[in-house]
Design goal:
Strand content: 25-35%
Number of strands: 16
Mean pLDDT: 90
Number of helices: 8
Largest sheet: 5 strands, antiparallel
Helix content: 25-40%
Radius of gyration: 37 Å
Amino acid sequence: MEQYESQQYRGCTINIGFDGDSDSPREWDNVATFVCKHPHYSLGDKQNVKGVVEDLFSDYVTDKAVIDFFVKNRNAEYIPGEEDDDSDHYYKFTEIYCKESHDRYIDADSSRTENEIAEDMVEELNLNEKLELIEASGEVVMLPISMYEHSGITLWLGSKDHHPDARWDCSSIGFAYIEKSTAEKEMPNRLLPEGSDFDWKEWSYKIMEGEMKDYDTYVRGEVMAFNIEDEDGYVFDSCGGYYDEEQLINDAKASIDGYLSEKEDAHNKNLAIVKDNISSINDKIFVYGQSCYRIVKDIFGQYCIERALSSHSVLDSFISIQLSDIPDELLENMVEYIKKVSKHGKNK
């Protein structure tokens, strides 16, 4: 974890950093499909842009839609043959290449089916025209995917012109899409207020935006992680894969609350064991850190605990302290000693 921030909470330290081992959000159970093509990066769910377009086109675009689109967008004119000649019908359109206009023709005589005519027109369509026809079918929603590359990459939905540095280092690399059948299968009504109409397109756009937000965070290397140290520097919890810092902080604080609660319960339990069995450790000296601890009786015959600091192999005078001041680890050592003494006594 590449740490960039720390926060304090209830005596513990929450260390926050970038998670270098997180899984790609495109491996999740997503609704949208991201189709991307780039010479240097493997991005999105699918990289065969042309193949995906051909599949969607085949599934949703009708022959009639192709013919109507071609006539309108290419200004194709239907030229009927002679009245007594059914074999001389065609569509005439003009293309410009090498700065010159050239007439082109698509055979439309009566022996040809609508499908055959449409197939010839499809051969003349470019990728963007096919995408336009797919979305016009009403069965698919799409948004372009753009990328900005400069000391790393960032992705967004929309054209490259939407980026402030659109003239530099930006490119369109593919598109995101959701099919109507997929949206309906995902039961989006659960995400809408009760009584709202189901607008699958509006819902799909929001889904695509949300999925792209997570994916962009991932490709920028800004997925977050945390680890937590207690007041002694012991790391007792860590977790990664966060895309929202507020959620990370909430989870880290919940972990601290649970850890301290368990620690307090264990402390109270061990303290009760020591109190109930204090006679078994009378005059026993326990060493912890730079201090020595012992259980003795005071002038009134009551058990008490005393502590003396050790400095350069010289032990200071013992002074009385409260049982609650015993460090947790030392308390655990005392409980272990009590259990051993008790077990030894039973074996006798």
